[in-house]
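Recall the central idea of this unit: under ordinary conditions, the amino acid sequence of a chain determines the structure it adopts. In this exercise we apply that idea directly, starting from the sequence alone.
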Amino acid sequence: MEYRLIEGEVFPEVWEKALKVCWREGEKIRTDYDKKEDSLSKDITAMMVVHEPENEPVYHRAGFPMGIEELFSYVDEVVKGTRDDLVDKLGYTYHDRMVNYRDDIQNEQGINQIDYVVEELERAGYSRRAQMIIWNPKVDTVSEGEDVPCLQRLWFRVVDGSLNMNIHMRSNDLFKATFSNMIAFFGIHKLVAEKLGIPVGSYCHVADSLHIYGSYFEEVQKTLETFQERSWEDRVWTTEEIESFV
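Accordingly, the structure predicted from this sequence is:
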């Protein structure tokens, strides 16, 4: 495996660096989703650290191929639980696992892990126990479908009066999902900080398998070429700019 620490001040900087590193240095590994004609994926284990996550610019124009409205919809799904009513059909949502974690999916009374994290950090900001878990072995290890949680846990700690958050993922599609994941999970970061009444600190995104699928290689190559052709200002959007498009 290839292991990398990738750091920067803002989200688009870190995502762009990660794409370049994985493309250039990623280990060639097969996936469960390859077609015969696909190249092997490129894969690294990465720790991506955003030191000033609230600073502008926040958005990379190439980071969310699904489009702006779909990105905001996904953020609402993770932060506000807008798809929690579909849990029985979908099997899980990240938000439902955060606010209604159940050992047994048939158990009607779940645990609100966001409330737990806030209470634990109010007790002791230095605590090492302030975490939320997403993976549920009783459900996810026996799932017959392909869609089981990539996000595994969220870990929080107050340092120098600010809330730092670490995200841990077993698998992360770097080209088409990682950036939108970052923006959505940062919504949880801000939510917990607001409940504590303190500012956000650093955001750390750990991915055991940060990968570029072989089927995306042509798209990725073209995207990397645009990085050379366009200025930094033409590769990113500020929050004000992106909200003007919605």
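The longest strand covers residues 200-212.
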